[in-house]
Amino acid sequence: MFDEAEKDPQLSDEEFSRLEEPLRIHLLNEQYRHLKIKDRALMIVVAGIDGAGKGETVNLLNEWLDPRHVRTLAFDDPTKEEKSYPLVRRFWLGLPPKGSVGIMFGAGYKALLDEAAKKDLNPDKLESLIVAVRKFEDTLVANDVQIIKLWFHLSRDAQRARTALLLANPSTAWQVGKKDDKVYKHFDRVRQAAQRVIEATDASHAPWTIIPSANKNMRIFRTAEAVLNAFTQRAIKVPPAHDPAAPLKRTKSSHRLDKLDYGASVSKENYEQELMQWQNRLATAVRSKKFKKKSLVLVFEGQDAAGKGGAIRRVTHALDARQYRTVSVAAPRPFEMDRPYLWRFWRNVPGRGRIAIFDRSWYGRVLVERVEGYAKRAAWQRAYQEINEFEKQLTHRGAIVLKFWLAVTPDEQLKRFRAREHSPYKNFKITPEDWRNRRKWPAYAKAAEEMFMQTDMPESPWHILSANDKRHARLEVIKLITKAVEQS
Questions:
Q1: Do 329 and 455 reside in the same domain of the chain?
Q2: What SS3 state is found at 70?
Q3: Among 187, 267, 298, 387, which residue is least crowded by beta carbons within 10 Å?
């Protein structure tokens, strides 16, 4: 794998001068073409042997490209704030929009390489990190992010010589860190770790390219060539795990919406008394010392006029406004559409001790986008797997994820629509879109049932509630939330 790079191939100044100008012109033209068609984003992962000239090369690449459309990010050890979220979140937030280029130092590989290089290697932990990286990259590629990964490599002697040369000059000595000086001593272990990681994460849809790095000209030329090849690739291969031809998980439909007791109700007197008790319990639970190590994610979906907003307000009455955030999800804005659909939800997940309430959510991909034809069949079919993985990442980091579907009958919805039209306080809530969605009731019901079947998981369950009686639904919601927080 590293044979060529460790022979330290050279590219003379004369030959580099001959190649440089046409390469730069071609690279820049392709960048502008890429920016114009906006069919994908390009993410360049930069990794390699310490002291191999990664930073110097990326600086030059920024000079060769139009830097207005390039974002370079370095991922060192996570900060205290970053540790309060799933660690993959910071990589999601750094994603470039379609048409642009993101250069990421590390991007999840730092922890992976550090683990692989340990003397007391934990195989299970290493495998877990490998799987996490592959799933992350698979999801990005399936959602129009092209990924290339560059490993900068050179021989042990060349690495030591380059480090010594940089240290000898005060103007370049800052480029040498403590790790660079130690690589020579542990070169074989680092090399072995790199080979293990590259072999485990190399894929046709997210390939690794080894960049010979002993010679500056060769390093720059091969890097620019790799980026140019990415720009000129006309299509992205969908990862096999996200192939829409792969069968969905199939179980016998339970028709959960049809089996609800829509006659369930609570008297006003009992409702007010119970609501206050449950709100008090919830207020205590989310202010506890134990909850500071957790987070709470609440998802509200359901038919139009099912009472999601009212249920949310009864929950927030028990919360400190500084502790929670309500996210009302509408059609994505242009800058959100330029990134994978989960990106805008990663921006709003809560850190430890915090609460996020989603009025509509990422399930729009398999509901409204499916029914209205905004998402292609392949996109919404693979979204089930992507959503499940997203929620697993939240729960594995200590989040309590509860999903509520508030259900009403067609007759009850019609009654509420007409009441809204005649109310000066609620007529803004009724729109032509609500009436149009109502005409597609069977299609939305079918989509919802399949969504329950594909995404109801023990760690992030669906709670499907009759909401013909709003008081009944509100009490059930706050009971389920309170019990989940208290038992966590």
A1: yes
A2: strand
A3: 267
